[in-house]
Amino acid sequence: xxxxxxxxxxxxxxxxxxxxWMGQCPACKxxxxxxxxxxxxxxxxxxxxxxxxxxxxxxxxHEVSSLxxxxxxxxxxxxDRILGGGLVPGSLVLIGGEPGIGESTLSLQVPLHLPxxxxxxxxxxxxxxxxxxxxxxxxGDPSGVFILAExxxxxxxxxxxxMKPDLMIVDSVQTMYTDTLESTPGSVSQIKEVAARLxxxxxxxxxxxxxxxxxxxxxxxxxxxxxxxIVDVVLQFEGENRGSYRVLRGIKxxxxxxxxxxxxxxxxxxxxxVANPSELLVPMHEEALSGTAVCAMLDGTRPFLFEVQALxxxxxxGTAQRSATGFDxxxxxxxxxxxxxxxxxxxSAKDVFLNMAGGLKVADPACDLAVISAVLSSxxxxxxxxxxxxxxxxxxxxxxxxxPQTDRRIAEAARLGFKKIYVSSxxxxxxxxxxxxxxxxxxxxPELVKALFSGK
Length: 456
Ligand code: TYD
Ligand code: MG
Fold this sequence. Notes:
By secondary structure, the chain is α/β, with parallel strands linked by helices. It has twelve helices and 21 strands.
């Protein structure tokens, strides 16, 4: 083991240095801001951009060669698209997600389908044999993949510098540690230092690095959040563990847009791209079922439709339960309160369960109308026609509000064969007529109820 380098503790709020850890910074009196860093790295400011001892001179911008041109295609349409057209050489990409969501699967699957690239796959969580077993399951061509089961960063960088791979994958940042810090692997200072050193390696060598980082269950992002400003690209993996769909969402991208999402399906042989999510997420039931409503959602730049399912039943044990999978339960409570107050539905003695099809997590406010319609449909036990869909937000006073890019949602709904879509009356611009679909404008929740369930 290499000799420990001297470390200092410094305050992330004011920069005050101390030889030992303290709960409260004596200078600025902030709590829990002291982190550990190697003494010399601390001196070269962040220690991230500049190499030690080098002194750079300004260069005219037009003389700087543009390196970003040759992107590396990962031979995975969805992944390439979300990266903005492939991987940029020398970039550091962080893929974050809850444990078990499939980060290791995705990161191993990529090189298995890129036999022409030499990939160094560094694993800190699994043994070489475990990776091999997984690779066998995933199929593909393993001839370009080299496995390194190692957690000490100095060794990893030494091996990588020697091998000069075309791509390096590190699974995961939480298991890696550098000898220059005394804190345990996975601590904030270790995670930051590991990421900063990998970034420097990527920039110096031109090798693109994909780094996996886990998010803790309670939503507090133990790794990725504190790394966002260090890395070039942050992709977040989402989905319900039980559901088979996974959504990869761009959170930050120095080389492209972040409004893209990629959808994958987890199968027995790894993750498969879902190029057209709507076609999977809208089950075209032959007979309509009560408690379901289809929402025309927009995630990123791509509209897609999926089914919202609700179950309303009498509360068995006094206090009514509200539970939502893939949807914010507070938003559900708000929508139920709107139904109660503005439309006179007494749902306070009813259990309400809400589920987004395919285990998707949805944050688009355009789902409100579909949620309300699904809840009412279950409440009345009356099925909505299966060729109807919804795209609008619901406000606190029961007004139905417009959502961005309604025209694109309508076009996608028409493409999938929907015959009717409910939108807000308050849309400022004129919506172009789309063949085959009737656009119904509604202004308030009572008006929607009348349009859907009059006489029921
Ligand atoms: P994994 O990639 O190990 O998750 P992470 O690295 O994010 O912790 O895999 C997560 C789950 O995926 C695991 O519980 C089993 C499942 N899985 C499949 O369904 N099919 C497959 O081909 C593989 C490799 C995994
Ligand atoms: Mg893993």
